[in-house]
Write a structure and sequence with these properties.
Order of helices and strands of chain A: HEHEHEHEEHEHEHEHHEHEHHHEHEEEEH
Strand order of the largest sheet of chain B: 1-2
Order of helices and strands of chain B: HHHHHEEHHHHHHH
Strand content of chain B: under 5%
Number of strands of chain A: 15
Structural class of chain B: mainly alpha
Number of helices of chain B: 12
Helix content of chain A: 40-55%
Distance between the termini of chain B: 47 Å
Helix content of chain B: 55-70%
Number of strands of chain B: 2
Shape of chain A: globular
Chains: A alpha/beta (418), B mainly alpha (306), C mainly alpha (336)
Oligomer: heterotrimer
Radius of gyration of chain A: 21 Å
Largest sheet of chain A: 7 strands, mixed
Radius of gyration of chain B: 20 Å
Shape of chain B: globular
Strand content of chain A: 15-25%
Structural class of chain A: alpha/beta
């Protein structure tokens, strides 16, 4: 068993060491980080992108001697976009691989399953990319930190300006599952708050591949704005069908977040409407170009030539965690949690327009939310987005999650010191 | 009626597409009594192969083929329509060779072998082309939209529905008007008889499996511009295909076509009035039909029941 | 036939080996690179697969929607803990009752079916249940699942179930007792009747068996066992998720049962579950494409050894003991 386990670890460390270009120090045991990203199922591609982000942050730390003098290695097991698998993988990584931290999650179901196990053992878990409002709301945990903007943040950023630009007659298309409902309910509240009204809310089941009847209804109702809370593969099918009908430009569409992994490589014409993101590789800010260059040096063979928001979240989650460990001077979970709860990153470091900070009551990263549309101004196939606006974190805060989230006390959270 | 008419037309078009999905499946299950669970993976594989042949934004790396990339898009699209089904038919031949070992044993073995094959094909697609969403580019003549009255119609969807109708017609002609079709139908009813008539049954089975696979690929090329293309797109296909075939009655060609239309109409109508039930409605329809008619609409007794 | 009626012994070498493995697992698992939680999942799935094989191997009824009952059991367990009281017996009872009721209802539609129509209807019902679990989020939590179903603090004899090892011994004991009961069941006259139905339904009817009722019973029983396993699964995971009800998950239990050799041996599902979970855990840590290898293995089994690992083993035993039938063989005649 020992030999087998070594092989897995060495494989992972070798990559890091190679990139870091130095031999690893032998005096202290390496710090193992468990990567719980999906590698199959509908979030496989996002899972791969966020893993690259996590690994780049780790490589940067290893290059300067690891954390607290310990080299960092990783182990990855596919969580299959399946919660039950998430539970098992978390149990395995904690019991067998003795990981220090768990990082990675796109599907909220999987992230919940992992965080429940992590809370039981007191292991810190970073939910890098699940944008479900419930993640930092009713399903929040003391050990879990959420790094993506959620559906409510994006709605906050979009609804008011869309109302002003396009008028009060709204229609919603909502994926009939928890994320869809949460996001849609938040959007509806905002619409009504700003004096608009929702003429119709069309629920589409998860797994819908044909939106023709929905698109016929859109034309029959003829709303001024359509707010779509459709995710995963369903959104990909919707995108293909809207683009085919050229309905993207005929109506004002407000989409939720478009993950880079889901749109990269698609023709620009197929992107429709306004949508949210937390970061873009062409933001005109210092450090961004260098960050993109570091990405390209580390991943020269990846088909994704530039990093996106999913990568960004994975990178920053990991980097902030490791910095918190250094600052705390220990891997003791309570100490690191307390450091992370006070986390504040200046805008220039974070490469966003506003300072980002951790909300200590929900454990969700509060960050700049950007709105974007398809960039049809040039022929660069990588330059997909045109950023239209940016909103400061406190203007797009998800207040509902503050009410819904009840973090466990420190007494009820076991101390874990890997 | 103004409200209903577009939905009815839409249901019809959708029904033809569903029938196209079921076509290859029904051929194989009708003649060979093998439930081909790899149908969806062959569908996906066909679409990926077509993507490579169309080579829009892919494959330009091979300089020896640069003359090919300069051909107009519609030429490349037409070659994909011809070549991709042939490539997939070859894979189908390979699968049939494997399946032979299960003939004469429990029927479940064949079904499970194709289930394994589905996993293998899907994972192989993932390894070769990655998990990312891809697009299958179609010539501009069959893409875009037009406005009639106050509704926007998709040209591609009309093309796809007509293509499906033509494919259904061609398969019907093949079955009814060619000597091969007669053999196929005889084989479906009585394998012994076919052998007695001096027809090579194993070659016939090979042919049918290849044809069924090619039809799966064709459905993939037609449908993925609408559904999008990803390694697990086959999962969205195999269940509706299976359902339609059983709904119409196993072994019945027109059963599958009518089953497809019925499912299309049901999905479109629930989509119009209770869209959150539009997937569930398929399954409820099946349960209702099978409760009323044990072998589906036009089904006859087959060996698959034992 | 899987086994000849009336010849059942209380304890066979296979059973002794299985129990020894089951109860000693926590003692050696860590030193060979396994972990307690994996043992819990394997034990629970063994129970699930053994119950499933009543249907597939013994009655010859291929169900592709059995995950639904595992899921219903898990939700029933979870809901009873959250809304009624935190109690292990109550939860497991709720799991069994709910899944048996659902199974009994579905069986009304299925019991006169065979072959492909049977299989397809199980898929359709399985999808309806899965869909309901996803859609009815106010009760089931939708795709997030039913969370925070805490393990009861003091269930029996004040055991601390929050420890995976303690929970493992409890689950192992439950699985062992259930296995014994199942073993007795398949060797009872009722078990023989079910197999008679599989061999030849018409003849069975002719001899006077009420075939419809037999099939209804075995489906309901099998669903109840799946639900029982689902209750244990929810206890272990402290949550119930809809994914176990998906077609994909239901297909996997069929694969496990067949790779192990459920058609030819009572113990086939046990072997199949162990192989699947170990392959997933060991290969899965090395390659994301492990399903490719598992799929190839499965195809290989179907091509060259359709009776599964148990079938191959049986042949091996026969080969080395040509003539003298062993204890293993009397219970493992090849399927017709």
């Amino acid at each position: 068993m020992q030999r087998y386990k070594r092989a897995a670890l060495i494989g992972a460390t070798a990559v890091c060491a190679l990139i870091a270009g130095k031999a690893q120090s032998q005096d202290k045991p390496p710090l193992v980080i468990g990567l719980t990203s999906d590698a199959s199922g509908q979030y496989a591609n996002s899972g791969a992108e966020e893993r690259r982000g996590v690994e780049m942050a780790i490589a940067e730390f290893n290059a300067k001697g690891g954390v607290l003098g310990r080299d960092i290695s990783t182990i990855h097991i596919d969580t299959e976009t399946t919660p039950a698998t998430g539970s098992r993988v978390a149990e395995r990584m904690i019991a067998r691989d003795k990981v220090a931290f768990l990082i990675g999650g796109v599907s909220s179901g999987v992230a919940n399953a992992i965080s429940q196990v992590a809370q039981k053992y007191g292991v810190i878990y970073l939910n890098t990319n699940s944008s479900s409002p419930s993640e930092a709301g009713e399903n929040c945990h003391r050990v879990k930190f959420v790094w993506d903007g959620n559906g409510v943040n994006f709605s906050q950023a979009a609804v008011k300006s869309a109302m002003e630009a396009y008028g009060p007659k709204w229609m919603q298309i909502t994926n009939d599952y928890v994320w869809g409902h949460d996001t849609s309910a938040a959007t509806k509240k905002l619409i009504e708050g700003y004096g608009g009204n929702v003429i119709e809310d069309i629920l589409v089941p998860q797994g819908t591949r044909d939106f023709s009847s929905v698109l016929i209804k859109v034309q029959q109702i003829n709303p001024s704005v359509i707010a779509a809370a459709v995710g995963g593969d369903d959104l990909k099918a919707l995108r293909a069908q809207v683009s085919d009908l050229k309905m993207g430009s005929k109506y004002a569409w407000i989409n939720n977040q478009q993950d880079w992994a889901d749109v990269y490589g698609l023709p620009k014409e197929s992107l429709f409407g306004v949508f949210g993101t937390t970061w873009y590789y062409k933001l005109d800010l210092p450090g961004v170009a260098d960050f993109v260059k570091r990405y390209q040096e580390m991943y020269p063979d990846t088909s994704m030539k530039v990093p996106g928001n999913v990568f960004f979240n994975g990178y920053w989650a990991t980097r902030s965690l490791l910095e918190a460990v250094e600052k705390a001077g220990t891997t003791n979970s309570h100490a690191v949690i307390k450091e992370l709860e006070q986390l504040r990153i200046p805008a220039e470091t974070r490469m966003q327009h506003h300072d980002a900070f951790m909300n200590p009551d929900t454990h969700q990263m509060q960050q700049t939310i950007y709105l974007a549309t398809a960039n049809l101004d040039n022929d660069d196939p990588d330059d997909l987005f045109k950023i239209v606006s940016s909103a400061a974190p406190d203007t797009v805060m998800d207040k509902g999650s503050v009410e819904a989230c009840k973090l466990e006390s420190f007494e009820d959270t076991p101390v874990y010191e890997p | 009626m103004d409200f209903l008419l577009p939905h009815i037309l839409n249901g019809l078009a959708l029904g033809l597409l569903f029938a196209l999905i079921a076509l290859g499946f029904t051929l194989i299950v009708g003649v060979m009594e093998v439930i081909n669970l790899a149908h969806g993976s062959l569908f996906a594989f066909g679409a990926y192969v077509a993507m490579v042949i169309i080579a829009e934004g892919h494959g330009e790396g091979i300089s020896a083929l640069s003359w090919y990339y300069e051909l107009p898009l519609w030429t490349r699209y037409l070659s994909a329509l011809v070549i991709a089904p042939i490539v997939v038919a070859l894979l189908g031949f390979g699968l049939e060779f494997c399946l032979r070992r299960t003939y004469g044993k429990k029927k479940e073995y064949g079904l499970l072998l194709t289930f394994g094959a589905a996993l293998v094909i899907e994972e192989s697609i993932r390894l070769v082309w990655g998990s990312a969403e891809q697009t299958l580019t179609v010539p501009s003549a069959i893409s875009g939209a037009f406005i009639a009255g106050d509704m926007i119609y998709s040209i591609y969807r009309i093309y796809a529905a007509l293509f499906a109708a033509a494919a259904i017609g061609l398969v019907w002609l093949f079955l009814e008007k060619t000597p091969y079709g007669a053999m196929v139908k005889a084989g479906a009813h009585d394998g012994e008889m076919v052998r007695a008539l001096g027809i090579n049954l194993s070659r016939l089975q090979l042919l049918i499996f290849g044809l069924g696979s090619a039809l799966a690929a064709l459905a993939g090329i037609i449908l993925t511009p609408i559904w999008g293309l990803r390694p697990h797109v086959g999962v969205d296909v195999v269940i509706p295909a299976f359902l339609i075939v059983v709904l119409g009655g196993i072994g019945s060609f027109w059963g599958a076509v009518i089953g497809g239309l019925l499912v299309g109409m049901t999905v479109a109508m629930t989509g119009a009035f209770a869209s959150d039930w539009s997937i569930m409605s398929m399954y409820l329809l099946l349960i209702v039909v099978l409760t009323l008619r044990a072998r589906g609409l036009f089904g006859k007794k087959t060996a698959l029941e034992s | 036939m899987l086994n000849a009626p009336g010849k059942a012994r209380m304890v066979t070498p296979q059973m002794a080996a299985f129990f020894a493995l089951l109860f000693s697992y926590p003692l050696w698992s860590n030193s060979v690179g396994l972990y307690d939680y994996l043992g819990l999942e394997i034990a629970i799935f063994i129970l699930y697969a053994l119950g499933f094989n009543l249907l597939l191997g013994y009655a010859g009824l291929p169900s592709f929607g059995h995950g639904a009952f595992l899921g219903i059991g898990a939700y029933a367990y979870g809901l009873s803990q959250i809304h009624i009281a935190q109690s292990l017996p109550l939860g497991l009872l709720a799991a069994v009752i709910a899944s048996a009721a659902a199974g009994g209802f579905v069986a009304l539609f299925l019991a006169h079916r065979r072959g492909i129509y049977f299989a397809l209807l199980t898929i359709a019902f399985g999808q309806v249940f899965w869909f309901t679990a996803m859609k009815w989020h106010s009760v089931t939590g939708g795709e997030d699942g039913l969370l925070n179903v805490l393990r009861p603090r003091t269930a029996l004899m004040s055991l601390d179930l929050s420890s995976n090892v303690t929970l493992y011994y409890l689950v192992a004991a439950i699985v062992a007792v259930s296995t014994l009961l199942l073993w007795r069941f398949v060797h009872s006259p009722f078990g023989a009747a079910i197999q008679a139905v599989r061999m030849n339904e018409t003849r069975a009817r002719f001899v006077g068996y009420r075939v419809w009722f037999l099939k209804w019973c075995v489906f309901t029983l099998s669903a109840a066992i799946a639900g029982f396993a689902g209750g244990l699964f929810c206890l272990t995971q402290e949550s119930a998720y809809p994914d176990v009800m998906s077609l994909h998950a239901s297909g996997l239990v069929v694969m496990m049962t067949l790779i192990g050799g459920g058609f030819v041996s009572f113990w086939g599902p046990v072997v199949g579950v162990i192989v699947y979970f170990l392959a997933r855990d060991l290969l899965g840590a090395h390659t994301d494409a492990w399903l490719l290898w598992y799929g190839l293995l499965f195809m290989g089994v179907m091509l060259f050894e359709p009776e599964g690992i148990a079938g191959a083993w049986g042949r091996l035993v026969r080969h080395f003991s040509s003539g003298a039938p062993t204890a293993a063989e009397t219970h493992r005649e090849p399927a017709a």
